[in-house]
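Need residues for this backbone.
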C-alpha cells in the first residue's frame, strides 16, 4: 500500500490479492467460508477495490488525507489540518509551534496548507518552514498545517474540531485514546 512507484504498487497489490484469495479458497475448502473479504488501503483503493471478490475496502486515510498519502494517490482534498502559530521568523525561515508532539511525520514532513513554502525540518515542538521572501507570515499568525502522516496525527489528539467556512460546527471525540485523556473519554 505504501509503495511509491505506481506501476510497482499495482503489481504488488495484485500479488497480495492473489495470496489473499488463495487463503480464502483454502479456508472454504476446509469448511470455513469467508462472508467478508477485506483488503486494501488508501494507497491501493483503486486497485484492490476493483477485485471482484473483495467485499470490504479498508481505505481510511483518504477521508482526512495527509502529505504522504497525497503523493501516492492524488485527487482527494485535505480535510485534516493542525492549526499552528508562527512563533518566530528569521528572513525566509518561519518557525511554528507544531512539531512532532502534535503532528505526525513518520512517513513524510508536514506542509503548510495554501502557503507556498518548503518544510525544512521538524523537531519535538517546532516546525521549520521556508517561505517566499514576500510572504506576509509574521509572529502570531495562525496557519493550517497539513499532516505528514494522518493516522498518527489523529492519535496525538483527543478531539477533532470540525470547521466549516472558518466556524467550528462540531467536536468529534477520538475515542481510541487512552482513558483519562480529555473531556470525552
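Answer:
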Amino acid at each position: 500500500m505504501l509503495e511509491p512507484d505506481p506501476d510497482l504498487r499495482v503489481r504488488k497489490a495484485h500479488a497480495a490479492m492473489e495470496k489473499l484469495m488463495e487463503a480464502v479458497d483454502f479456508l472454504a475448502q476446509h469448511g470455513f467460508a469467508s462472508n467478508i473479504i477485506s483488503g486494501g488501503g488508501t494507497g491501493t483503493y483503486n486497485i484492490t477495490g476493483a477485485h471482484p471478490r473483495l467485499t470490504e475496502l479498508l481505505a481510511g486515510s483518504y477521508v482526512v488525507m495527509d502529505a504522504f498519502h497525497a503523493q501516492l494517490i492524488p485527487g482527494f482534498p485535505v480535510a485534516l489540518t493542525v492549526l499552528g502559530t508562527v512563533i518566530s521568523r528569521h528572513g525566509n525561515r518561519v518557525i511554528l509551534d507544531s512539531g512532532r508532539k502534535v503532528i505526525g511525520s513518520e512517513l513524510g514532513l508536514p506542509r503548510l496548507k495554501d502557503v507556498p513554502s518548503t518544510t525544512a525540518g521538524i523537531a519535538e515542538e517546532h516546525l521549520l518552514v521556508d517561505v517566499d521572501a514576500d510572504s506576509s507570515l509574521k509572529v502570531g499568525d495562525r496557519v493550517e498545517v497539513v499532516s505528514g502522516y494522518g493516522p498518527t496525527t489523529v492519535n496525538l489528539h483527543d478531539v477533532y474540531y470540525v470547521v466549516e467556512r472558518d466556524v467550528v460546527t462540531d467536536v468529534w471525540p477520538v475515542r481510541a485514546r487512552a482513558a483519562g485523556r480529555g473531556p470525552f473519554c
